[in-house]
Structure formats: structure tokens, C-alpha cells
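It would be a great kindness if you could assist me with a short task in structural biology. The matter concerns a single protein, recorded as an amino acid sequence and a row of C-alpha cells. The record follows directly beneath this note:
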Amino acid sequence: MNYQIELRHLHYFKTVAEELHFRKAAEKLFIAQPGLSRQIKQLEDYYQTALFIRDKRNVELTEAGHYLKKEVDLLFTQMNRIKEQVEKIKDGKLTSLKLGFIGSAVQTIFPQLLVNLKKEQPLIDITLSELSNEVQLDLLLKNQLDFGFVRIDNAQSPLQSIPVMTDHFSLVVPKNEKNKKVKKVNLQNYREESFILFSKAYSSSYYDLVMSIFQDHGFEPHVTLKTVNALSIFNLVSQGLGVAIVPSSLKKGYHTHVDFLDLSHLPQRTTLSLVWNQGNRNPGISLFLQTVDSLI
């Protein structure tokens, strides 16, 4: 073999692996299909193994191809991060951080944390994205997100987490003067109600935790609607379409026509956690954690 593997070979491989179609990949890369096939053949010769299974109709990744695709994705993510970091330094910035969060985080420590970070580390650029728990965890694993504020039981390696806030639950009902007289909620009184809950797409572990509340009270709720958006839940409840169980912290910051009935007498608690990837080499990671440590 008298040639060296270059970055373009991996770029071509990545495109074919995403398209699983040589002609479409060639068009996307603006090269001729025979040239693309030749580049992939050189890559397979270099690794001394087939990366694709090809016939006249289908293109599939081999086991080695799947492994290389995963590593190449990480490589290009890191290269993009290096480019971003170099550009930040050129512009006089220290680094950038991409933060994911669920809606309930905004009603807790999250805003004050951002204020403190901007004050202590003004040279760090922040990008915020409201995302579901599951999407945040996936992006953290790919190093496409630096930190996530999520509700999960525990983080699996290489992810690491610290608890930010533990919260009890509240029952959300349409606003009514009679609610002010309720001292202690008995969920048995609501067993015939329709429930509007955060879906499993919000967080599977969180959903299971809420369902355990009903299990403790000996009934299965009639769940008529599921969503990942708190405001949607409150609006649906206010229109009389059902009741809901949510973290108590969500009663802050929303102006909706509902009442929150405290469920602190129940044993279930939900924890908002800060999660990051231990393998993330962003220099802003340690600085952000220092700011978090000063608040919790």
C-alpha cells in the first residue's frame, strides 16, 4: 500500500455511512461515483476489512463499519469543537458551553446559575436549548452538549451527575375557591379523573416514578393526554380536560388558571440533576462546575 489515509477518506466514509447509497453520497460530496467507490476501497484496504455490504439494491454497514462510523462521528464532533474553540480564542473569548435543560429547571437554580456564570466567567459564550431528558443524554454521550439539566435516577458512565435540587410533587387542578380549604390531598378522591402527564419521552425514569404514586394508592390512572411541555399541561388542566401531577417547583414562573395542591406527604421525590460527559475536553467544564458548586 503506497498511499496514506487522509481526512477526506473518513469524510467520504461518513457520508456513505449516513446515506447508505453511493450515488446519493457522491452527489452530496460533489464527486463522481466511481471516484467515491475508489476512496472507500482504499479505506477498506487500509483497515484490511470490508466496511460495507453491497449489492445492486442495498448498502449496509458491516460490524467493523458500524464501529468506524461511531468513532468517526466522535472524531468530527471533536474537530468541530476544536474549530469553535480556536475561533473563540481569536475573538477574545475563553470558550463556549452548550447547555440543555428541561422546562422545570428554569423555575429552580438554573437562572441564578447563568447570572453567576456570566458574572464570574464573562468570556464564556452560552448556548441554551430546551430539550427532553432522553435527547439531552444522547447529545451528552456524543459530546454535542456540554451539560444537561435532567430528571433521571442516575447517570451511566461515561456520564457523571450531581443533584441540583430535590422536589416533591403537586396535584394540578382547575382553579377553584374550594381548593384553598384542602389541607391534605387524598388521591383516592381523584381515581375517576382523567390525568394529563409528562410522557415517557420526557424521561422514562421520571414517568415510572409518577406511576409509582398511583401504584401506592392502589389504582391505575386514566391517562388521556401526555406531553413534554409543562405549559401545555397547565392549559389543558385549566380547560377542564383532566388533572395532573408535576414537580412542585413548576408552580413558579407560570401564570395559568390552575391550582397546585401539595403532595409533600407522599414519599416520592424527583431530583433535578446536572449531567456531563467525563470525556468532554471543553475547558469550560471545570469553570462551570465551580460556579455550580458555589450555589449548591
In short: The domain at 93-165+272-293 is CATH 3.40.190.10 (D-Maltodextrin-Binding Protein; domain 2). The chain has a mean pLDDT of 89.
